[in-house]
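QA checklist item 7 of 12: single-chain prediction sanity check.
[x] sequence parsed
[x] length recorded as 417
[x] structure emitted
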Amino acid sequence: MAQFMHKREIEKGIILGGYEMKIILCSLLLVFSGNVFAQESSAVDIAVRVHDGDRFVDTLTLEDFEILEEGKPQKIEALYLVRGRNIIKRQEIQPFEPSVGRHFYLLFQSVDYDSKFGEAVDHLFKDILRPGDTMTLMTPMKVYSLNEEALAKRPAASLSKEMQQILRKDIQRGGGDYRDILKDLRRLVRSIGGDSGVPNPDMEGDAFAGGAFGLEMQIDRYKQNLMKLENIRLVDENKMLGFASSLRTLPGQKIVFFFYQREFRPEISPQAMNQMMSMYQDQPNILSDLQDLFSFYRREAPFNSRRVAQAFSDAGLSLNFIFMHKEAQYIFGATMREQSEDIFSIFSDIARTTGGLSDMSQNPATSFKKTSGAFEDYYLLYYKPSDPAPAGSFRTVEARIPGRDYTVHHRQGYLRK
């Protein structure tokens, strides 16, 4: 299980280790506690990206935009056109002091290392990061944070290589338990369903193999492993809410890239299940165990995607979801059921709500290059809400350009304080 890991220095303080991934999402505020600034108490800022096809539209003015909160038009107080870390256009009815800092977060949920991960990391260091940016890498094991001073001390190529090595090592180590559980599930499925309950050579020497009693024990172990597989997944509502809360007061752009590997779990095939139900109809204990498996297959982990989406949007996090497609492995007697279809729909919706992007590809580096380039240019709009609202209520926001057929991305609301 996860253990608390003290912060340590690697390479003269340039790369900082942190908490294990299981708890880091609730603790990132410690990393940035020295860089927190108070936000404007009465004004709301909305970063807006406007595209005409693949082209960012950089000719808009304050008069071109409309902002609606809860469907009601709001008066825009200021517009700033930002390119990278530079404000290249200002229009102010009331002046503000916008933060143009950029904080990049790369989160990886994968049990197998892909060389394309390295290409994505290399692209970030060589083509995206600029002086003054920060970067945080979250692996299945630890978190590594590089502040602007750390990024300035060593060449980008050197840091990129080191981060790639760390990512490879942590994914291989962190995915070990997951891979072991999958391996055991595959063996159990072959033994339980592959030969309709007849002991399988793959299970020779297993204390639970052989006979009806052995079948009962194998089904029980199969169910236990299914639960372990679910619990080891790092997608957890409380962790995501903690992540958003810890970064809410961090100024500037907070751009998150969540790499998620498609998952499959081996299930006993319907044909094998039907055959075993017929074979063991005179043995109620085994029939009950087999019937219980259907509830395990149907159960869904509770995850309030709306709550998480609102927390991310309120914190100003732009989530970009990169779903890594892969084909299921064939196993005789088993149905390889996708275990991540819920993840794709949940995080695609969160990405949309936060003004981010989602992409599905077998090449995560290509997806990363496509999504990361969208955050170079944006408009920052300020307005003061015209209507009072109860503290803690989520206020929906819509930015639009009337009369223009443009694609507009922005966070879709905030929590009134």
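[x] summary fact logged: The chain is about 40% helix and 25% strand.
[ ] second reviewer sign-off
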